[in-house]
Each structure stands twice: as structure tokens, then as C-alpha cells.
UniProtKB/TrEMBL annotation:
It comes from Eulacestoma nigropectus. PANTHER family: FOUR-JOINTED BOX PROTEIN 1. GO terms for cellular component: extracellular space. Signal peptide: none annotated. Residues 46-58 have a biased composition (Basic and acidic residues). Residues 1-71 are annotated as: Disordered. InterPro entries: FJX1/FJ. Residues 1-10 have a biased composition (Pro residues). One of its GO terms (biological process) is cell-cell signaling. This is FJX1 protein. Transmembrane segments: none annotated.
Length: 385
């Protein structure tokens, strides 16, 4: 993936993005004055605010029920009624069935186009389904794709990602034998690990909603979205915002710079980029968002934290309404300090070829836990407000 850098004399701070704790070598903690909804948070919190936020994060059923007309419950959680309207995405049973079939199927044909870079292919499988076969520029991109997919499972948001499995390129193997000639023309290395991602029809582009789209295009800091504005939004927009809150949290944890962050970076030469389609994010016909192509996550992204966290962190701070289930999982990973262990357990149990690519290094595992801890403190601070 390209690694662009800001032009000389034009630091990221020009667009309102501050340096992140990870980029400075700190574990970081964020507390800025926030409302109860999506908003920008311009200043650091005090240690006392963070401690208070930690104490108030625990969610209990003893609190009175929220107003059913409000999209937000208990200050920082999307309402249950609203969450029930979010399209289901790729159900776990459906994904498991497809993965099992794809691993057993033969590759009937390989076609160019439709799956990103020129080294990728669209595969037609013998069971009648189709899959994008991604051949990374280097193995860490395929590793990042696989680990990001399973981290989404740990976080309870895997239904937003198309089912993905690893495959071993063997021209004389059973799976690839029907396309032996096509493989010769692909310049893929024998024994390389590629990813098979389920092809999804009729996807359409997604433009970032407020406060990330129009505000950023106007050159301003991310602006608050008041509770009154949330109440007035139509259900379809609220349902999309629920999914965006998960997306931004997910991309912060994985340090994925190849989605909304890459658009924000491009503001320096294209002031209208935020009004255009968001990279690697598409919408299904039922309105569900599909988090596509996560090759930049966890491995490649962690190597470039100093470059991209000045964009990724302000995005996280712009969210102060969360899915309650997501917040619970983050709190548990923080309490047990088990982010890498949970990811490793799930990856090894569900991906037969995991050992071919290996797992995170010790340093990468530490970064993942540090980012989980940072998200937890941010959620706690939002609650404290």
C-alpha cells in the first residue's frame, strides 16, 4: 500500500488533527468535554475525569428505562429499538456455511477486475459462488486481512465483514487444478497464502455522514452533533450512524488507514474528498454497511502509527455514542488485558492456515492492548460527561 506523507511545511495539525499517544510512544487516554452524542472533543481530560469515567462505565439494569422516542439510552448507548433496526449483515451461521463450502470447492475460473488491485482475481467456485482472491503485495497484508476479520469477531461486529478464509496457492493441488493455466499468467508464487472473500452483489458507494463528511470538507474541526439533532434525524440515518460508530472504533483498534482516514489525509489537495465515496466501505441493498478490504489493519497499520494516528485518533474522539455490546466487549478486554489472547484463540480455532502467516509479534500484541485500553478510557470519559 502507498505510504504518502504530508507536503513539507504542512503538518497534519493544519487540519485540526492532533498527535496521538501511540505516535508519541504513550499508552494514551482521552478525555475531552463531550455531549451525549457524536461530537468533536478538543482538549485532554484530567486524571480525575478519567478515574470518574472508569467508575461510571459499568452498565447496570437498575437505571430507569430511557425514553423510547430517544435514539440514545443512558447517555452514551444507542437505544435497543434502534439497534434492532440495523440490517443483520452476514449472519454467523451463513458465514460458517459459506466458509466451509469455499474451502472444499475447486476454483473453476479466475477473472481480472472487480476485486481491487491488478494482482487480485475474481474466482468462480465449483459450488456456484464467487469470491475475491486477494494476493497481497507482501504477506503482512493478507495477515492483516485475516486478523482484522477475526478481531471483528472478538468485538461482536463480524457480521459487517464479508466471510473470509485463507487459501494456499498450489497449481497442482486439488483446489487450483482447474485454473492451472490462469495461475501461470497471474505471477502468483507457488505456496503463497491468499485470502478468499465472499463476493457480494449490488453494493453501492457510501459517503461519510455528518459530522465527518461536510464538516471536514469545510476545513473545520469535527463538530458536535447535538442530542436534539439526533432525535430529529430519520430512522435510516440513525441506523447508519449506529454502524459508523462501530466502524470508527474498529478502524482505530486496527489502525486501518485505508478507509475514512485516507480520505481525511487527501483533504490537503482535495477539499471536497469527504463528499465523495469512502474507501473500502460499501452499502448492501438492505442498507447495511460492509467493511471491505482490511489489509491495512493490525500489521501494516501498526507499522505506520506515527503517520496515521493524527487522523485515526480524532475520528475515535468524534464518537461518543456506542453500541452497548461493543462497549461491554471493550471493557472486558481491558479488564482482563486479553485482547491479543482472545484474538489468537479465535484465529487458531477458526482458520486452518493460521500458522502459515503466524500471529502478531509481541510488540504488535502490546499495541493492540494499548489501543483497547485507550478506547475503554474514551468510552468511560464519554459516560462521565
Amino acid at each position: 500500500l502507498p505510504e504518502p506523507r504530508p507536503p513539507a511545511g504542512q503538518p497534519p495539525e493544519r487540519w485540526g488533527w492532533g498527535r496521538s499517544p501511540a505516535a508519541r510512544g504513550e499508552s494514551g487516554g482521552g478525555g475531552q468535554k463531550t455531549f451525549r452524542t457524536l461530537l468533536a472533543v478538543p482538549a485532554a481530560a484530567t486524571d480525575r475525569e478519567e478515574r470518574d469515567g472508569e467508575e461510571r462505565l459499568a452498565v447496570t439494569d437498575s437505571q430507569p428505562p430511557a425514553d423510547t422516542a430517544s435514539p440514545v439510552e443512558r447517555g452514551i448507548f444507542w437505544s435497543r429499538e434502534l439497534e434492532e433496526q440495523v440490517p443483520p449483515g452476514f449472519a454467523a451461521e451463513e458465514a460458517a456455511a459459506w466458509l466451509s463450502a469455499a474451502r472444499a470447492a475447486r476454483v473453476a475460473s479466475l477473472e481480472r477486475g472487480g476485486c481491487g488491485r491488478s494482482s487480485n482475481r475474481l474466482a468462480r467456485l465449483s459450488d456456484g459462488s464467487r469470491a475475491c482472491v486477494r494476493y497481497g503485495i507482501n504477506p503482512e497484508q493478507i495477515q492483516g486481512e485475516a486478523l482484522s476479520y477475526h478481531l471483528a469477531g472478538v468485538l461482536g461486529m463480524q457480521e459487517r465483514l464479508p466471510p473470509m478464509a485463507l487459501a494456499l496457492v498450489e497449481a497442482r493441488g486439488r483446489q487450483w487444478e482447474p485454473v492451472r493455466e490462469e495461475l501461470r499468467g497471474s505471477h502468483w508464487a507457488e505456496g503463497a497464502v491468499v485470502s478468499l472473500t465472499r463476493w457480494v452483489d449490488n453494493l453501492t458507494a457510501v459517503v461519510a455522514p455528518a459530522p465527518w463528511g461536510a464538516e471536514a470538507s469545510a476545513g473545520r474541526r469535527l463538530q458536535p452533533l447535538s442530542a436534539g439533532e439526533l432525535v430529529g434525524l430519520p430512522p435510516s440515518q440513525l441506523v447508519e450512524l449506529v454502524q459508523w460508530s462501530d466502524l470508527i472504533l474498529f478502524d482505530y483498534l486496527t489502525a486501518n488507514f485505508d478507509r475514512l482516514v485516507s480520505n481525511l489525509f487527501s483533504l490537503q489537495w482535495d477539499p471536497r474528498v469527504m463528499r465523495r465515496a469512502t474507501s473500502n466501505l460499501l452499502r448492501a441493498p438492505d442498507g447495511g454497511l460492509v467493511f471491505m478490504d482490511n489489509e491495512a489493519g493490525l500489521v501494516h497499520g501498526y507499522r505506520l502509527l506515527a503517520m496515521w494516528d493524527p487522523y485515526n485518533e480524532p475520528l475515535l474522539r468524534s464518537v461518543c455514542v456506542f453500541r452497548e455490546g461493543t462497549a461491554r466487549r471493550v471493557a472486558e478486554l481491558h479488564r482482563r488485558r486479553s485482547a491479543a489472547a482472545e484474538l489468537r484463540r479465535r484465529y487458531r480455532a477458526r482458520e486452518p492456515l493460521w500458522a502459515r502467516l503466524g500471529f502478531l509479534s509481541e510488540r504488535q500484541a502490546e499495541l493492540l492492548q494499548a489501543r483497547v485500553d485507550f478506547v475503554h478510557r474514551h468510552i468511560a470519559h464519554c459516560r462521565a460527561q
